[in-house]
Each structure stands twice: as structure tokens, then as C-alpha cells.
Automatic annotation (TrEMBL):
This is Redoxin domain-containing protein. Residues 49-180 form the Thioredoxin domain. It comes from the Bacteria. Pfam families: AhpC-TSA. The keyword Transmembrane applies. The chain crosses the membrane at residues 6-26. Keywords: Membrane, Transmembrane, Transmembrane helix.
Length: 180
């Protein structure tokens, strides 16, 4: 009989400890849920182009053969996107970039896409970007990507009308302003 009483007391103690631990976990989860949105993790920015830095000066030609420079883009908010035809992720991100441009009313002159082409493979990319962006095709990590200091793709930069980087990162989400 004493063994049975001891066993019941032991089970009761283990159950009580389990209940206290469960309550502690629930309380911790509620605290995490109540965090303000501003404290939520924002997408990391590109080290090479942090917010507040000037947009690098560049000169290139668009796919249509028109000259384009960084000075041409002053006076309007601009989104820069860097892709490479050898990047498997890049192709899947293009529709997200197009949706972002559409949702934010960005004209093709406000979205500049630089495609690093490894050998006449840019056709698939340029078809999806037709009417959405101004496209520059250059060799892999070519002159414009080098001016921006791009280390990997995909990469995105959002600049204000004065040519100052507002946001940068490796996802389209990096283009969305952080709400305060």
C-alpha cells in the first residue's frame, strides 16, 4: 500500500511540474505574439549598399539601345534589380518584382533591371520584364553591377528621387518600406 501511495504522489509531482512548464511556454509565446510590428525582423540589407548611401554613378545602354545613366533617374523613386541568367532563384523572383512594380504604380522607367548574361540566355528574362522595367543586359557581374558593388544575385535596391538608397536586400520584400 505504501508503494502505491508513493507512486501516486510521484505521478502527481511530475504532472504538476509538466503543468508549470506548459504554462511558462504559453506565457512566453503570448509575449512573442504581442511584439510590435516594428520589432519584427526586417529583411537584411546589402552590406555594399546600406540605407543612406548614394546610388553609384553608372552609364550603360538599355536592351532597346538607349543610353541610360544614374543622372537620368534623378527626380523619381527608382527600383534597381540585379539578376543573372545562371541563377536559378532569379527566374522565380521576376514575377514578384513585376507584381511589386504593378502594386506600387512604378513605371518601366522607375524599375531598372540589370541582367548578367552568361551567353544569350537573357531572352526568357527580358520577355517577362517587357513593359515592366528598363532592362540592361551586360556580361555576368558587368560594369553596372560592379559600380553598385553587387556581390551576389538576386539583389534589389530602392532609391529616392535624390538618388539616395532607401532600402536594399536580396528579396523583393527589401523594397517595401519598414513601417514605424
Amino acid at each position: 500500500m505504501e508503494i502505491l501511495v508513493g507512486f501516486v504522489v510521484l505521478i502527481g509531482a511530475v504532472t504538476l511540474i509538466n503543468l508549470l512548464l506548459t504554462l511558462a511556454v504559453v506565457r512566453r509565446l503570448r509575449r512573442l505574439d504581442e511584439r510590435p510590428a516594428a520589432q519584427a525582423a526586417a529583411p537584411p540589407q546589402l552590406d555594399e549598399l546600406p540605407a543612406g548611401s548614394p546610388v553609384p554613378r553608372f552609364r550603360s545602354r538599355t536592351l532597346a539601345g538607349e543610353a541610360i545613366t544614374s543622372d537620368d533617374l534623378l527626380g523619381q523613386e527608382t527600383v534597381f534589380a540585379f539578376f543573372d541568367t545562371g541563377c536559378s532563384v532569379c527566374k522565380t523572383v521576376i514575377p514578384k518584382l513585376a507584381a511589386h512594380a504593378d502594386a506600387n504604380g512604378l513605371k518601366p522607367g522607375q524599375v531598372v533591371v540589370v541582367i548578367g548574361d552568361q551567353g544569350a540566355e537573357s531572352g526568357e528574362y527580358t520577355r517577362e520584364l517587357d513593359g515592366v522595367a528598363t532592362v540592361i543586359v551586360e556580361p555576368r557581374m558587368g560594369p553596372v553591377a560592379q559600380e553598385f558593388g553587387i556581390q551576389g544575385v538576386p539583389a534589389f535596391v530602392r532609391a529616392d528621387a535624390e538618388g539616395v538608397v532607401m532600402r536594399s536586400g536580396t528579396t523583393v520584400a527589401a523594397l517595401v518600406p519598414v513601417s514605424t
